[in-house]
Please model this.
Amino acid sequence: MYKEAILNYLKENMEKPYLAQDLFEALGIDPIDQSTFIASLEELVESSKVIKTKKGKHALPEFFQIYVGRVQVAMKGFGFVIVENVQMDDIFIPASVLGGAMNGDIVQAKITKVSAESQKREGEVIKVVKRANTEIVGTYEESKNFGFVIPDDQKIRKDIFISRNGTLGAKQGDKVVVEITKWPEDRRNPEGRITEILGQSGTPGVDILSIIRTFKLPEVFGHKVLKEAEEIPSEVDETMAQGREDFRHLNVITIDGKDAKDLDDAIHIVDLGNGNFELGVHIADVTEYVKEQSKIDKEALNRATSVYLLNRVIPMLPERLSNGICSLNPQVNRLTLSCIMEIDSAGDVVKHRICESVIKTVERMNYDDVSDILEDKATPELLAKYAAITEDLFAMKALAARIREKRDRRGAVDFDFAETKIQLDGDGKPVFVGKAERRIGNRLIEDFMLAANETVAEHMFWLELPFVYRIHEMPTVEKIEALNKFIFHFGYKIKGNLEEVHPKSIQGLIEEASGKKEEHIISKMALRSLKQAKYSPNNDGHFGLSAKYYCHFTSPIRRYPDLQIHRIIKEMIHGKLSAERISALRKIVEAVSVQSSEKERNAELAEREVNDMKMAEYMMAHVGETFKGIISSVTSFGLFIELENTIEGLLRMEELDDDYYVYDEVRLQLVGERKRKIYALGDEIEIVVSKADPVLRQIDFELA
Model:
């Protein structure tokens, strides 16, 4: 209750620490609320937002040169503390002063040294505030009178000791989940007990299951959630369509990947004859079935996103909804929330409306078929199959071009990186890794969804209602200056004011480098200089899209923010937003934004981990083979090489044995001292695959 007042007072009065009584009197708290005040202060101390000395005095951590953040441990044992809510570089922590902290823990770090030249900080961990992992996944190793678990996460540097009565009957080489019962101290290993045996290492499916457990992804739905889902109808009754705008007379279609089962968006187009098009974006009306505070809703918020791990999906909603009544399957009635836009020749939305609706899609199309038709690559059979909607598809192509041109004009940045496509066989073994094509069908849907997301966000912004926006903040000056220094060596320069860089400047840089040897590297470094997008109750704009207003409206089956804003929109349509409800929603959208951003990051990390593991497994079959690639990253310990199939591996410094190479940190190059040979970002290089380890997610190269 009093937390914000305490923090504000300490921020404004940084000259000394205060006793609890001093703060109580300074803030003019009613004596009757003293116990509530003390409880609030203790909670702030517990979470390390306030530091309490042995003499009972309180101040913000910065007063004591203490910083709170998440520790990232490197493979070699040292770590960095990434400080929360303070604009400063990460604090380097030597391995000897990690204080028992493990990778991902929230810690208090005290600065011990600041470099006079670089201003880089070194420190030590003085307290672990919150443990990131109470459970760890690893491989069980048997010993005579005890066992130990080797963590899959290589950044957890210590094996976990397992006493004889804590093994759960695990055998040598089993993949297991272990609960930590005693945390590490100095040189002593952590101790734990095994809570689950996942199966023998190497057994099909166990590898991905290990990652599911590592990232604590909820694999199954509880009995009560599934029971509630069973009670939801599997068909749309005609009475449910009453009062909704009816689009069943139009050519409404879905365009998705061939294997997609959760179809949450459909589209229609009408040529209005005045040079403008009507674009209808129809989104599954999930909130019609998932009511606020229902068991399904609570579980959906807990998950916050569906997670796609190659050959398996961990859905946000039970399959009865995600693949059933909520999925916009062909030739069946479906309830939707629609954004209907009239778009002119400049790509501007000149009129729009948002309405509850009912649709019946005429075709379930896929990206490849649509692209083949629009790129004049279709077979006669394909053209005959979709003859009734071919005219609509070409109108969509023309409209998508308008929308994209408008986005380009205002400076949206399009990092056209090839996504990786990984195909697995029935046993989960990778049989293909290569570039995923981003063809016209994919881009068309992307353009239409972006237009709907922007239109809905702007509509709701001007109504000044609580909302969940998708924001992408402006990059920091430090990051942009560092990027500018780097590209200078390639002959480029970021135009305009670096203090408040405009997306157009980044867009211009990408376009200038287009088609040149360094294009890929310039794009990669530019992307690294930007912040990550996130969800927020505040409309802070989207830098990458150069958009003033943006939200996620189009995927409520697989993203909770979309579901939440659908609920707000529907309440607005029905006039249910009382002052009391608006007040409640302000807290709800704050919580949803934080939860969804966190779960999105976790899902991205899990997906990347699975991809890295399967790429390493794929390259095991290619050890000894020669490939061409480009240098994608230069470090003090070697070169990262990206192959044509998007797989990246490491060429270690010791493999470069024809000279002694020095790392040039400014130009990101390795320079030979005697022969002056240079290995630089973007250079083409021929390598041989020397080793691939799926467990470590590592691929090693040597020079061809």
